[in-house]
Specification:
With 220 residues, this protein is of the alpha/beta class. The protein has a single domain (4-218), classed as Rossmann fold (3-Layer(aba) Sandwich). It contains seven helices and eight strands; from the N terminus they run βαβββαβαβαββααα. The protein has helices at residues 17-21, 58-61, 84-109, 122-125, 185-190, 194-204, 211-218; strands at residues 4-8, 25-29, 36-40, 43-47, 64-69, 113-118, 131-133, 151-156. It has an eight-stranded mixed beta sheet with strand order 3-4-2-1-5-6-8-7, with helices on one face. α6 runs antiparallel to α7 (211-218). The radius of gyration is 17 Å and the shape is globular. The model is unreliable at 77-84 and 208-220 (pLDDT under 50).
């Protein structure tokens, strides 16, 4: 069977693209996908809410090599702190429940994993992140990622944090903070920076023996 990469709360699928290119079977799970399991070649979209008993099918469990999770941060991100009081305990509880469920699946798998959130109150409710980064730090893989967005990672299972890879001179913009209001604003702001996705693949995959060759292939 093919090795599997699993991505939770993933609508866009940006995180799995380097794994797809390398021949992995990639499962992306999000409530915005069409309900059920929808397969197109090596990309499997699952429309489901992982809080209500969804787990990877038995036939792929032993093949899971990496998990990424992006639980919604609507009621946790400190950027929205001025609205916390009006959101109430139910909203806060929902966000923590989503984050906790992602953590449980990641730890249950035994595979290397990352759980991503912006700077948020989860650091108070659980623990501080293991790593932080900005997209511009990996714009050597994807020039369009030359922007700021401080992002936190909680990791485990032997996850390897990739080394930054960018030009010597970087002038990052703040496009995320200036993103215009729209129906798609939430998804646009939460898209995984492609350069970081490539870097994570290179640092955590055993598909290639030579990092230099892999970097060259994925940088073009």
């Amino acid at each position: 069977m093919k090795p599997v990469m699993l991505s939770l709360f993933d609508f866009t699928g940006e995180m799995v693209k380097p794994w797809l290119e390398a021949g992995y079977e990639c499962w992306i799970i999000d409530v915005q996908h069409k309900p059920g399991i929808n397969r197109k070649n090596n990309l499997v979209k699952v429309g489901a809410d992982i809080r209500f008993g969804w787990l990877p099918p038995a036939e792929i469990i032993d093949q899971i090599k990496f998990i990424a999770a992006f639980p919604p941060c609507d009621h946790l991100a400190v950027s929205g702190a001025r609205w916390f009081k009006g959101k109430g305990l139910r909203s806060l509880g929902l966000s923590i429940d989503l984050f906790a469920t992602a953590t449980e699946i990641c730890e249950w798998s035994g595979a290397p994993y990352l759980i991503e959130n912006p700077v948020s109150t989860i650091s108070t409710y659980w623990r501080k992140p293991d790593y932080t980064f900005h997209p511009w730090q990996y714009c050597g893989y994807e020039p369009n990622d030359e922007y700021t967005k401080k992002t936190c990672l909680w990791t485990g299972g032997g996850f390897v944090m990739p080394e930054p890879y960018h030009p010597n001179k970087v002038n990052p913009d703040d496009r995320i903070h200036k993103c215009s209001p729209s129906a798609d604003r939430k998804n646009i702001r939460s898209i995984t920076p492609f350069g970081f996705a490539k870097a994570v693949y290179l640092a955590n995959s055993k598909m290639f023996k030579g990092l230099i060759n892999a970097r060259s292939r994925l940088s073009h």
